């Protein structure tokens, strides 16, 4: 077994673990980031709505409230440093009755207490002037100009990439199987391939955070997954709304939203269904119906016929009402960043800061590095360049002239770049480059992406996976099944021959 | 623009499949000087090289060829008449001023200024997203054409046990192809009460191999986390919703989707070409000209054809007309034409062409159409100005089989502005 020595081991490379990793890479520390999946963001983060919340939803005084508002304010700098697209498109929470208008006022007041800047109460005409696509039944709205959208997986990939560039060691396909303790302190975490000796362990394991806590004898909380289904619409529907449209919230969730994503598609969802199964990622007929009924109630032009993709994600909700960000009371050196449901993406950078403060409080010596580089270079996006820039790109690297994904105009150079930045799977290439995200959903580009992955990773095409583990796409070489059948015939005839 | 190559061509054909090859050949034969075929792949032929089964060319050549053989004949002919292929070249933009912007690894950014343009981009397959089948998103779900490419070009097989959803021709062909590759094809599932593909393919690809076809059924749920583990299948009610009490489970590790083809018209739409909502393709005249003068279209980009032979015929018409239009433009002549409308009548889902040039004529007008629903003992009828121009009896019509009917242009009055094509009870 591989033995690694580190100061801090982070369990989980979702947006929270990735933000913590990048924050720690500002210091002169040895940090190891562990991810059970084939790539970062492949758990809850990749199915996130990408909404940058303003902070008026959470109860004043909660971690959710303070970290959301703080995190939101940090995003402009992060997006710029990491070259991740961010749009401050604003949030509009709409009311359809006088009762709902009262709920808006409560949220307006709550937002002011939480320190949310720029909140406005709008009447019917003002709301419709801002968003002409709203349903006629909307009587009032709460507007939060700091609300935004960011691509959740692009953000996570960029955080990890920048952390790695600043010295963090990133290990994929490395689920933690046990935590080693000595005298009530964590001393190491174990994965199937490695033992990572570390005096501090950050539990950012998302849906599995309670399992990780239990490995250190901590049973203080339980993760209770809550499923959300999302439906993505074809880009041809255009900008039917500019802001992210929220209903007034239900007791369990912020409700079903109409989201103009950072990539320019409209997305509708999510549902909110409690589930016991941490692999329950199926969409349902009832979820589909619920999402469109709710979305059309706010924005009538949202239509099921425009769906190009649907997916479900699991929020890592917990037995506690608030985020669980604290040192474990059972195991010294173990720090939880768990139960991170909405507004976790928005709060992630502030959560990372808070984790660093906790580490200092727990006695970890931390020196800021002089050579920390906060900038992660932007991946070239051929489709977004002017014609003159496109010509220059191809002149410098002819593989920019080879279009792999026709719907999103993604070139071979971009796919190769994504692989060099850490993509290992077809989904990883898709999430990084958008190859396969357009209206044909990979029908054209998938075999081409598979071939490039095989070439760049030095493996044969049948070993290429969709998202790691057992998800090989075309698992058998040509004739393999025929040869197998033939060898069965040979074996059977030998039995007959032996009589 | 800096760094780009700007070139004049008489006719630019976009897409090097059967439609584009035919158009380019016809344009050269009609005398067009420089004719280029812009093809995004590394070779010509479009989808044909991966169609290694036979059944191509019965109408055009009077013999049965495989896809690669059919393609080869046209590729060779294109070369012999002096068509210039531009391979690995992706068109990014077509403008109504007849400019084509494209990129390739060897040439960089290319701008073609054209006498005429022929759109021949073909079609793409409907994907899972458009169906919103409930369940998980494991590896092992492919459109039939993608699976065909994996098996026939990339040399990899997508699973051991397969189910095909939809009975379109590509799905039927792949049911047989996978069987020959040692895959157990458990079933073909079709939501309609009649098959989507050609009758000959139902016989040769399913019945001959004992593959069950479930009509009026659908895949109601997809199972499996990393790799597909199986599908739930159920009969559907009148609203095409699965009847859950009658659902059963088929274990499989590959699901092929053959649920429809969509003409690929992003370039056409961006250029401003008017599309027909019924076909998903450009509205065209009988010489395959779109709503933009000088922009022609042919093959599956106009409407989805069953047989490549018809695609070739379309391409020949478009290429010839494009060459004529290009020489007219170069001579500075621009004829203005009055266009009449072709209407889809009773039980006609669509008819192509949708427009015709009005006036006295001596040629033959051929209409391609599909019925809305299957029907027996009917007449195909073409009428104009209250007169029936042509009647043709048909024992059976099905949406899966394209119909054609021709009319002698001399029968059409010079003043007629509407032609109706209908399928009526005999």
Question: Any chance you could write out the topology, listing elements then pairs?
Answer:
The complex is a heterodimer of chains A (499) and B (426).
Chain A: E1 2-5, E2 8-11, H1 15-24, E3 31-34, E4 51-52, H2 63-82, E5 86-87, E6 91-95, H3 98-114, E7 120-123, H4 124-130, E8 140-144, E9 148-150, H5 152-165, E10 169-171, E11 178-182, E12 185-190, E13 194-197, E14 200-203, H6 209-215, E15 226-233, E16 244-246, E17 257-260, E18 266-269, E19 273-274, H7 285-298, E20 307-315, E21 324-327, E22 334-338, H8 344-361, H9 387-396, E23 403-405, E24 410-411, H10 412-420, H11 426-433, H12 446-457, E25 476-477, H13 480-498
Chain B: E1 4-14, H1 18-29, E2 35-38, E3 54-56, E4 65-66, H2 67-80, E5 84-86, E6 90-95, E7 99-104, E8 108-119, E9 123-125, H3 128-131, E10 141-143, H4 144-154, E11 156-157, E12 161-165, H5 169-180, E13 184-190, H6 199-206, E14 213-215, E15 217-223, E16 230-235, E17 248-251, E18 254-257, E19 261-263, H7 266-271, E20 295-297, H8 308-330, E21 339-344, E22 348-352, E23 355-357, E24 364-371, E25 375-384, E26 387-397, E27 403-408, E28 418-425
Parallel strand pairs in B: 1-2, 1-8, 2-5, 8-20, 10-18, 12-13, 12-18, 13-14, 21-28
Antiparallel strand pairs in B: 3-4, 6-7, 7-8, 9-19, 15-16, 16-17, 21-23, 22-24, 24-27, 25-26, 25-28
Helix pairs in contact in B: 1-2, 1-8, 4-5, 5-6
Mean pLDDT of chain A: 96
What general form of chain B does the structure show? globular
- Which class do the helix and strand fractions of chain A yield? alpha/beta
- Name the poorly predicted regions of chain A: none
Strand content of chain A: 15-25%
Helix content of chain A: 25-40%
Rg of chain B, Cα atoms, Å: 22 Å
Largest interface: A-B, 64 and 54 residues
Number of strands of chain B: 28
Largest sheet of chain B: 7 strands, mixed
Roughly what is the average pLDDT of chain B, rounded to an integer?
Answer: 95
**Bulk shape of chain A:** globular
Number of helices, where a helix is a run of at least 4 consecutive DSSP H or I residues of chain B? 8
Query: Which spans of chain B have pLDDT < 50 for at least 5 consecutive residues?
Result: none
Task: Give the assembly state of these chains.
Answer: heterodimer
Share of helix of chain B, binned: 10-25%
Task: Calculate the terminal CA-CA distance of chain A, rounded to whole Å.
Answer: 49 Å
Structural class of chain B: alpha/beta
Q: How large is the count of helical segments of chain A?
A: 13
Major sheet of chain A: size, sense and barrel closure?
6 strands, mixed
